Amino acid sequence: MQRCPGARWQLSDLPRRAMGANPVPLRALCRRVLPSVPEQVRCIRAYSGRMKYRHLHHAGNFADVHKHVTLLAALGALKRKEKGFLYFETHAGRGVYDLADSAAESRHGIGRLVGTECVAAPLRRYLVLLEQLRAARGGARLYPGSPWLAASELRAQDRAVFIESVPEEARALERALSAVGTARIRAEVGDGFEKLRSALPPSQGRALTLID
């Protein structure tokens, strides 16, 4: 595994028994890992400042499907309690994508899932939301990003903040979220890590953060 310059910690540095048959206690593991988190965040930010990544070329691929189904499962778990929560994204993207821009990758992701019968509730919910978006916007090639999916799942007591560093993408995100029609959502342009720091701890006492 290649280390990020300046980083002193990586997954392989953990004791072997941390992930073995007799794992170490979570508290002990956190004592080992957490002190390095600020350094890792600085490293990620240094690299992301030089990245020229646009998610539209990868929307709907296998990794996207896995991420979005997992997100819906996590949101579903939070919604088992009546108490509201904060949902926060540090790198939100544009909200809705045209799969014509990622046809090669999406064909092996969402393209293989559409039309199948799914047993797991998060998968079924994922496909329902996909069809809702396409029906509302009249586009068979449209694909929802994580902000659109999360915003569609919020209840009256929940809140969401979406941060995007690229102004053009942030404007597209605002347009996509306006169709969801809720005042509980805020989209901003800026540094997602800095804004996350100011948002925690949330007033709701519960939060789910997506850093992607």
TrEMBL record:
One function term, GO molecular function aspect: 23S rRNA (adenine(2030)-N(6))-methyltransferase activity
Chain ranges passing through the membrane = none
Please name one Pfam family that this protein belongs to: RsmJ
Identify this protein by name. Protein containing DUF519
Organism of provenance: mine drainage metagenome
Note the Gene3D superfamilies from the entry.
Vaccinia Virus protein VP39 (3.40.50.150)
**What InterPro entries does this protein's entry cite?**
RlmJ (IPR007473), SAM-dependent_MTases_sf (IPR029063)
Q: Tell me which SUPFAM superfamilies the record gives.
A: S-adenosyl-L-methionine-dependent methyltransferases (SSF53335)
Might you name a Gene Ontology BP term for this protein? rRNA base methylation
State a GO cellular component annotated for this protein. cytosol
